[in-house]
């Protein structure tokens, strides 16, 4: 590792500080205490465990067997307290979290990253340009309460940059939208404003839109928090994996962190009804003005949505995009409800088995 960062450089914020008890604060600041506590941030996740970075270096975190239910649910970006033996003590509450449906399962979620402040939604201005995909990513950002920033790449390969940028801006007039040639470092410099010291950003976008190019450009000649590591993959080959959390520090300017895990890149829409509603807030607003509270927005009289379509205030594309995402939510919701019902049934069965076994022991069976 080239350099140890300060807590602030690692992304420590008042939100996390406020969670520490007085006792914990004492144990953190007392270098001589036997039960000294150390604050660390999870920077990598491996099959074998978590790598935690602290102000005094990085190490593999250990845990006791009974902590597995918590440590199995940790992810890159998490803040943890550890003891001097590098053993997990507790997880600090997350400011934000990205999760997805676990592969092969409709109901379990898999945590991808935590404590991201801003999300760069990357979309290229050539053939990948797709408003509905941006809306999908916006729903994810809103659900996770992470600030979205839309970055339109390959501006150098597009004839109507201004028109397309306006279209994206029309999704939300308050949203930050940038169009860049990601290969040109001077064009991406303004993006560094979102990555100031203590801020953690993540990137989301289809393959080939320029995420790696942006990350490399933003890192510039940054000091890396950590160097690349070599580990054996499942087939025993050596692979070089780069750190999931990268630090942008250029010259004497100390920047924020880029969280770049493969999982983040493949993120799909999980359960995020709230995020979808927020992304399409004008549609939910309109729907509340329909004459009938159960309006299907088809041909009912007094339908505010149909009226907005007719006046051109709302586009059909946007309505269809909203309905599609909402339908996906309904499906997610259904599977979650089914899972809850199943868990409840299982709980009942376990209870009845335990009651029966207790009565057998008491001899009244
Ligand atoms: N002309 C031009 N080419 C770009 C731009 N951004 C990226 N590219 C090129 O597009 C190709 C894909 O870029 P990457 O940065 O690897 O894309 P990515 O999003 O990281 O792709 P994945 O790793 O598959 O997710 C590379 O050849 C880049 O040089 C841009 O703004 N303009
Ligand atoms: Zn209606």
UniProtKB/TrEMBL annotation:
Might you give the EC number(s) for this enzyme? 3.6.1.-
Q: Which UniProt keywords apply?
A: Cytoplasm, GTP-binding, Hydrolase, Metal-binding, Nucleotide-binding, Ribosome biogenesis, RNA-binding, rRNA-binding, Zinc
Chain positions recorded as GTP binding sites? 153-156, 205-213
Record flagged with keyword Coiled coil? no
Where in or outside the cell it occurs: the entry states: Cytoplasm
What PROSITE patterns is this protein classified in?
A: ENGC_GTPASE, G_CP
What are its cofactors? Answer: Zn(2+)
Q: Which CDD domains match?
A: YjeQ_EngC (cd01854)
Cofactor note, please? Binds 1 zinc ion per subunit.
Domain EngC GTPase span(s) in chain numbering? 114-265
Stated family: Belongs to the TRAFAC class YlqF/YawG GTPase family. RsgA subfamily.
Report the function annotation for this chain.
Answer: One of several proteins that assist in the late maturation steps of the functional core of the 30S ribosomal subunit. Helps release RbfA from mature subunits. May play a role in the assembly of ribosomal proteins into the subunit. Circularly permuted GTPase that catalyzes slow GTP hydrolysis, GTPase activity is stimulated by the 30S ribosomal subunit.
| Oligomer status and interactors | Monomer. Associates with 30S ribosomal subunit, binds 16S rRNA.
The cross-references to PANTHER family, in alphabetical order and at most eight, read: SMALL RIBOSOMAL SUBUNIT BIOGENESIS GTPASE RSGA
- Output this protein's name: Small ribosomal subunit biogenesis GTPase RsgA
């Amino acid at each position: 590792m080239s350099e140890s960062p300060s807590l602030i450089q690692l992304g420590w914020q008042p939100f996390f500080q406020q969670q520490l008890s007085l006792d914990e604060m004492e144990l953190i600041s007392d270098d001589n205490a036997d039960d000294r506590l150390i604050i660390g941030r999870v920077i990598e996740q491996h099959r074998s465990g978590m790598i935690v970075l602290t102000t005094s270096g990085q190490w593999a975190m250990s845990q006791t067997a009974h902590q597995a239910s918590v440590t199995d649910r940790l992810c890159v970006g998490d803040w943890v307290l550890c003891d001097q033996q590098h053993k997990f003590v507790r997880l600090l509450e997350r400011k934000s979290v990205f999760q997805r449906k676990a592969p092969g399962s409709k109901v379990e979620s898999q945590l991808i990253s935590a404590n991201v402040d801003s999300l760069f939604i990357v979309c290229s201005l050539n053939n990948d340009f797709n408003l509905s995909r941006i809306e999908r990513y916006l729903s994810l950002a809103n659900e996770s309460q992470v600030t979205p920033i839309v970055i339109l790449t390959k501006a150098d390969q597009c004839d109507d940059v201004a028109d397309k940028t306006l279209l994206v801006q029309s999704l939300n007039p308050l949203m930050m939208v940038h169009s860049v040639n990601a290969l040109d470092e001077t064009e991406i410099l303004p993006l560094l404003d979102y990555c100031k010291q203590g801020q953690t950003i993540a990137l989301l976008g289809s393959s080939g839109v320029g995420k790696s190019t942006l990350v490399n450009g933003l890192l510039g000649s940054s000091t890396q928090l950590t160097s690349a590591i070599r580990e054996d993959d499942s087939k025993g080959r050596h692979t070089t994996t780069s750190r999931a959390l990268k630090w942008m520090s250029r010259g004497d300017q100390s920047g924020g962190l880029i969280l770049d895990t493969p999982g983040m890149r493949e993120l799909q829409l999980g359960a995020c009804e709230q995020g979808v509603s927020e992304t399409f807030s004008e549609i939910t607003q309109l729907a509340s003005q329909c004459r009938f509270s159960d309006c299907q927005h088809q041909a009912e009289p007094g339908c505010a949505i149909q009226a907005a379509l007719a006046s051109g205030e709302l586009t059909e594309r946007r309505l269809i995009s909203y309905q599609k995402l909402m339908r996906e939510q309904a499906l997610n919701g259904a599977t979650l409800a089914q899972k809850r019902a199943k868990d409840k049934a299982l709980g009942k069965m376990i209870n009845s088995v335990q009651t029966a076994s207790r009565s057998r022991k008491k001899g009244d069976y």
